[in-house]
Amino acid sequence: xxxxxxxxxxxxxxxxxxxxPQRLAVYQALARTKAxxxxxxxxxxxxxxxxxxxxxxxxxxxxxxxAIG
Length: 69
Known about the structure:
Blueprint: H1 5-14, H2 21-32, H3 39-46, H4 55-67
C-alpha cells in the first residue's frame, strides 16, 4: 500500500522522527518507481534537487522509512 506524503509525515512524527524535505523526497522517489533502486541510484536522482544532500542522508532516510513501516 502506497502512502501519501502526509501519511508518511504523520508516521515520522508519531515515531519521534523529524519530517525533512529530504526524507519525503526519498519516499516520493521510491513511490514513483517500479524498480528496486539502491541508495546510490536514489542519491543520483535526488542530488540535482537537493545539492546539499549526502549519500549518508539517503541511507539514513531509507533506514527510518523501513523503521516506520
